Amino acid sequence: MGADQGHAFSGSRERRTGTLLGRGPLQAASLLLLGEFLVRSLHIRPSILPSPSRLLLEIWRQAPELLHHASATATASLAGMVLALAAGFVYAAMTVFSNRADEISGPVISVLQRIPWIVLAPLLVVWLGFGKPPAAAVAFLMCFFPCAVLLKAGLHSMPVEALEIADSMGADRAAIFRKIRLPACIPYITIALKLSVSVSFAGAAAAEFVGSDAGIGYLMQYSGARADTTGVLAALSLLVFMVLLLHSGILLGERLCIHWPADIRLSASSHTPDRSCPADSGRESTCQP
Description:
By secondary structure, the protein is mainly alpha-helical. The protein has 2 domains: 1-43; 51-269, Orthogonal Bundle (MetI-like fold), CATH 1.10.3720.10. 78% of the residues lie in helices and 0% in strands. The protein has helices at 2-42, 52-61, 63-97, 99-112, 121-128, 132-155, 160-168, 173-210, 216-225, 229-257, 262-269. The chain is elongated and about 75 Å long.
């Protein structure tokens, strides 16, 4: 029976992966054809909204320059995202091993995550200078607090019964963390990754509006100052493409590597960044999805 269930789930996973790989390009092609039809049938001027064919031609023509700016944005975004995930995991682990730290930091994190950190971009440019550092810093600030809340919920998501069984078998806190809490947190890590991708790229691009000489945000600002609608949309399209590509890669890796039913992953996604686990007494601190 278990083997049959395993084969059924493996086949289901392969079907979902094939759907993921086949549906996206088909939908993108459909949207491009629809946009081409609407722009041409409504006779919209290129200075207002260029057609997809004109936009693709502009992307092809400016490919070297676009790739140069895209690499700058991707570097800053990924650096901020990785640092935010690492710092969020350290914070979440700290709340597991120290109830006092959980009680003190919980309200602070709850308040700080509601601050629109993107408005600090001009100040970060003053502190860190032009270029990638302020963009990476904005990406870090925008990713850290949602990631911290999600990862904390993941590490505290174990049922009390599982922790009691481990405790009765003589497992210490480090063993419980390594063998029970950490595997249970994997769906929350994937949710944090998918959330961080769009947030980090948006934050980095916004910071490049303010103070940078390279990047997608800088290129959009430069094209906008020249009233070059096609250039702005070309840069924006590349930014969206990078986000969708990375998000699809994370989703594909999740479906290939995590051999758990979808309902377990959905239970993790039900934790929004505004929800955090209550601090309970003892080490059996839990947060139910």
